[in-house]
Amino acid sequence: MICDDTAEYISALCDGETIPPPAAQHIGACPDCQARLSDYLAMGVELRRAASLGLADAVPSRVWSKPQNRVATWWQKGWETMRIPRVAFAVLVAGILVLASALVVNRARAQNTGNVVLLTVAGPDLPPSDCAISTEDKDQAPYWSWKIGARPVALKIRLLARDGGRLRLALRTRVYHPGEDMGALTRDADLAARLQEVWFEPGESLKVDVPEVGTLTFKGQWIDHMPIMGLLDPGPTEVRFGRPLLLKDQRVVGDLSGRIGGIFTEDRQDWAMDCTVPGQGRFQISLLPMKGAVEAHVDLGQVSFEEGGHSWEFVNGVPVCRADHVWVLHRPTLKTEDENFGEAGCGNVKLVQTEPGVWEPQEKPK
Amino acid sequence: MFDDRELWKKIANGNAEAFDTWYRETGPRLRAFLRHLLGDEQGAEDVMQETFTQIWRRPHRFDPERGSPRAYLFGVARRQTAEWRRKRKATDELGVDPPAPSRVEIASMVTEAFSRLTLEHRSLLWLREVEGQSYEELATILEVPLGTVRSRLFAAREALRALWCTARQDSGGRHDL
After folding, report:
1. What is the pLDDT of residue A101?
2. CB burial class (10 A; 0-12, 13-18, 19+) of residue A110?
3. Among B117, B66, B176, B40, CA closest to A46
4. Domain range holding A71?
5. Which chain A residue shows the shortest CA-CA distance from B147?
């Protein structure tokens, strides 16, 4: 017997199988076959060792809801305890179905056109924010970050499945401590993030309780295309920045076009756009007059103002607001409260009224 | 450990608590399998979640006469993996790249060589060596005849050994794992 004939039997030996006596005899006497056996065994041991390293992490908590089973149980119970002839009941159900079908078809047509859902998310300290989710592209995952008190919060949504007019969404949330890497959730690498799965039906309002965060409210509607989000007409109380350049004395000193696609949407005025430009500081822009702010002229995407003996101009790719002026509070040395938000970018900050007609950004303590 | 039949009866009746227990017990092992199969942390997480979701929604697709729930779980996960790779390949053509070592893994020559095996060989070796699946269970999971399992296992071991031997030679003949 030669080694090639026994090689497969060596593999079988490793699996706890018995093998023909001539093969067993050859393996016992052949150094090459014994080396192969030794290698096979070592490989198995090493794979089990490597596997053991990955077994310590618990899987994320999930809620296993199954509405169709409750319906089935209810139906089964009713069917078993029915007191009228079952044939009569079947005819009754058939009649109801025929009458109702026209309504169902109409409702479905009205609510379930298109493959894109325009989703609005709002929550504690999170102003209503829009995003569009295509049911044909499950790789997209809209992401939000904001703060509750002094603690940063991140939310990421991924579409898991579509069932007719409903969507199965995976919500990943995490409340961070200062100094923790929020980017891990953006990169889908934060295994400590809380995962919840929910069914969401556009047209309805869905409230989801998230521990530590509070109640998130989801609203949405079906549309038939991916919208160019908010590029055209700003809402009546909106201040929006989109890929801005900052000019100081007619020279470009800040280019955020590669860092943000900032859109700030809010149905109340007491918020300010909070834009950080490396080397130039923070610029807080609001429709409301803020203490220490200067008035800026708005012309579509341009916001120009004089401050500190310099002329400043933000040039945006989108119209900024409906008003022809805004208030800009420039804070050259004020850093963001939390380094996690990065050096450059746009966010928003809540305003508090400190005296009649005057507001101030509500800076959280570090 | 669970009495599989009793547990599955509860799961098939929509008992969320029983399913959650099973999820917590088997999830880490499935995720470890998927990490080594895909070489992608998030991909492994997504496929694991999708696998459990699918089973939870349609528990009656599992036939207890045809094997254990655990074998069924890995079979569903394997199909989900193929689907995930197909979509990934279609979107960013990453499907042909060898997977990166897992986050939790201290890379070794064997595991490095393992990551360069084909998906089929990785599945087979992992399920046999780590999960201890029998030939019958492997035949069910991989949807191949029982007689094919032994020859494929041999082929997978030989492929891994060849890659490992090459790595050993490249590193100066040291026999590190």
Report:
1. 66
2. exposed
3. B176
4. 67-111
5. A12
End-to-end CA separation in angstroms for chain A: 77
Residue A175 pairs in a beta bridge with A153
Residues of chain B with pLDDT under 70: 1-3, 90-107, 171-177
- Final residue before a domain boundary, out of B104, B119, B134: B104
Contact A47 B28 (CB under 8 A): no
Shared domain for A151 and A194, answered yes or no, is yes
The residues, any chain, with a CB within 8 Å of residue B44's CB and separated by 6 or more, are B31, B34, B35, B37, B38
Tokens at A341, concatenated: 């938000």
Q: Are residues A250 and A354 in the same domain?
A: yes
Please identify which residue in the block is written with the tokens 């996690």: A340
Q: Which of B104, B126, B155 is the last residue of a domain?
A: B104
Kindly state whether A311 is in contact with chain B, defined as any CB-CB distance less than 8 angstroms.
no
CB-neighbour burial class of residue B125 (10 A; exposed 0-12, middle 13-18, buried 19+): buried
Same domain assignment for residues B93 and B113? no
Residue B103 makes CB contacts below 8 A (sequence gap 6+) with A189, B35, B41
Residues 189-248 of A with CB under 8 A from B: 189, 191, 195, 197
- Convert the pLDDT of each residue in A260-297 to its tens digit: 544 455 556 777 888 888 888 889 998 889 999 999 99
Say whether both B1 and B86 belong to one domain: yes
The reply to whether B99 and B160 lie within a common domain is no
Q: How many residues would you count in chain B?
A: 177
CB atoms near residue A343 (< 10 Å): 12
In this structure, are A79 and A155 located in the same domain? no
At A105 the pLDDT is 52
* CB pair distance less than 8 Å for A57 and B24: no
Choosing from A223, A253, A268, the residue where a domain stops is A223
Strands A151-163 and A166-175: antiparallel
pTM above 0.80, yes or no: no
Q: Do B104 and A46 touch (CB under 8 A)?
A: no
How many domains in chain A? 4
d(CA B70, CA B80): 15
Q: How far is A132 from chain B (nearest CA, A)?
A: 19
Residue A148: predicted pLDDT? 76
